[in-house]
Amino acid sequence: MKTLTPLLSALAVFTVTAVAPATATTPTATEPAAMHATGHFDVKISPQTPDNPQARASGLARLSLDKQFHGDLDATSQGEMLGAGDGTTSGAYVALEKVSGKLHGRSGTFVLVHRALMVDGAPQEWTVVVVPGSGTGELAGLAGAMTITIAGGRHDYELAYTLPGR
Questions:
Q1: Domain annotation for the chain: domains and CATH numbers
Q2: Can you list the residues of the chain whose pLDDT is less than 50?
Q3: What is the DSSP secondary structure assignment for residue 15, as one 8-state letter?
């Protein structure tokens, strides 16, 4: 398998279309208001060596993620990514990352799950979603999805989310 870097580069020129509400609705007594957090992040992606026979036999690319978020989300994250495909015209990746910090001043952690396909060199079905039930501390009950735009080497994000009691 070729390196996953071309796949990530090709995905980077497109905007991630996440499963998130496009507009806020008037919340009911039991339904929290939709919120939006924006900013940018720095990311370091490091290839990892398969550490067992099954991982070596799979031929999947494994990479570690290390991020620093700036803006409304002031946090760090670490995660793991698996990728398959030729890295230029077809492939897929999945990733999980644990985010730790403050979201609009509320402290805690949560997990994001990523999924994307590449077909004929074009990303499809790219989503980044908060794992249900993963919020801790003041972020307990967090739900939402992140849109990522990469242009000129800069990674911008918008997190559309709901949080009980907000």
A1: 5-21+34-162 (2.40.350.10)
A2: 1-6, 9-25, 27
A3: B
